[in-house]
Design a protein that fits this description.
By secondary structure, the protein is an alpha/beta fold. It has 10 helices and 9 strands. The longest helix has 32 residues. Bound molecules: calcium ion (2 copies).
Length: 358
């Protein structure tokens, strides 16, 4: 059970970092996190990958590789299955291997049908991640995502997502000229990542490559809690994009931004101390149960409690300035004690399961 030991080790490291980080908290205390991105045992996470058409073999194989590897990483490491991932790819079919991953064509009809299907299965409190790969164009109302057939506008797509007002939503828009489209999808309680910061950034971004890499093997897990938050994935991708252009000796033609306070203004350097970043810090793409963990029902319950407490620590830390120093520390201490207890309990249950399982 090498995986389990690694998981425990990572978790222990994560707790240590968390305790250390609690001391360095700050924030301007503007937004309310409410119940956003609260992972419950009975909630389900869904992913919709939209990969639009392109021209040229190089672009085609690049988009395909991104779409397929994202699909496979979600299934392998993040507890998704073919029934919780929808992949809408180009015209809906590919030559050779891999086509079994594709659910429909990335055209208006395909998108409408997949969203309707999703609407028929989602429950309040579920989470939906929408990941866009391809080309975009235009600004504000004129912004478009390039699909098969007539393109879809930002306003049109935002309207189609209105039906999911009881679900948490993450949108990762990695297309060229993504900015206008991304901005029209901004909403309260939503985390929106855009690979470009203005509609003039029209070249194909490399951002998607590194965002997916952040999820792969949990490369982006900076605070070592064995989970990759959207904020961590964003920062991982952003810094790798910067390195990429530097190594090429080229001026960066893309600057990614993140908006999670619903004001349609994207921060280039989101942090928990900024306007944007706090929701992204508690937004995770992973399911409570993934294939590698093999946890018992009791362990899953404890893991859920752990994640819940950890989330509360992050939220409190982000809102430090709203509290009197003493009150802040009192609340933080209570949370950290609970978290330490829950961690010990969880470890005990998992270790019991491990020794009885061998
Ligand atoms: Ca992490
Ligand atoms: Ca914002």
């Amino acid at each position: 059970m090498k995986t389990m030991s690694l998981f425990l080790k990572n978790f222990a490291v994560g707790l240590g970092v968390l305790l250390a980080n609690a001391a360095s908290a700050q924030g301007d205390g503007d937004s309310s996190e409410n119940d956003f991105f609260l992972d419950r045992e009975d909630s389900t996470k869904y992913a919709v990958i939209l990969a639009g058409p392109t021209v040229g073999d190089e672009n085609k194989s690049q988009f395909r590789q991104w779409a397929f590897s994202l699909h496979d990483i979600l299934a392998r490491d993040y507890g998704y299955s073919s029934s919780t991932i929808s992949l809408l790819y180009d015209r809906g079919e590919v030559e050779g291997v891999g086509s079994q991953r594709i659910d429909a064509a990335c055209d208006l009809e395909g998108i409408q049908q997949e969203l309707a299907l999703l609407q028929s299965v989602v429950q309040p409190g579920d989470q939906i991640t929408i990941y866009l790969i391809g080309h975009g164009s235009g600004a504000e109302e004129e912004s478009k995502f390039n699909i098969v057939g007539p393109d879809i506008t930002g306003g049109q797509f935002a309207g189609m997502l209105d039906i999911f007002d009881q679900q948490d939503m993450i949108i990762v828009n990695t297309t060229s000229a993504s900015y206008g489209f991304s901005a029209s999808l901004s909403n309260e309680g939503r985390v929106v990542v855009s690979s470009t910061r203005s509609s003039s950034e029209k070249f194909d971004p490399i951002f998607s490559n590194y965002f997916i890499e952040a999820l792969d093997n949990r490369n982006g897990d900076r605070d070592k809690n064995n989970r990759v938050s959207i904020l961590e994935a964003f920062n991982y991708a952003k810094s790798n994009v910067e390195d990429y252009y530097e190594e090429q000796g080229r001026l960066a033609s893309e600057h990614a931004g993140l908006d999670d306070n619903g004001d349609a203004l994207f921060s280039l350097n989101p942090t928990v101390a900024e306007i944007d970043g706090r929701l992204a810090e508690i937004a995770y793409i992973d399911n409570l149960v993934d294939d590698t963990s093999g946890l018992s029902a009791e362990a899953i319950q404890l893991k859920s409690r752990l994640q819940d407490l950890e989330r509360s620590v992050f939220i409190l830390r982000g809102r430090k300035v709203e509290f009197l120093e003493q009150d802040y520390w009192q609340q933080m201490e209570e949370l950290l004690v609970d978290l330490a207890r829950a961690t010990a309990q969880f470890n005990e249950v998992v270790n019991q399961g491990e020794s009885s399982g061998q």
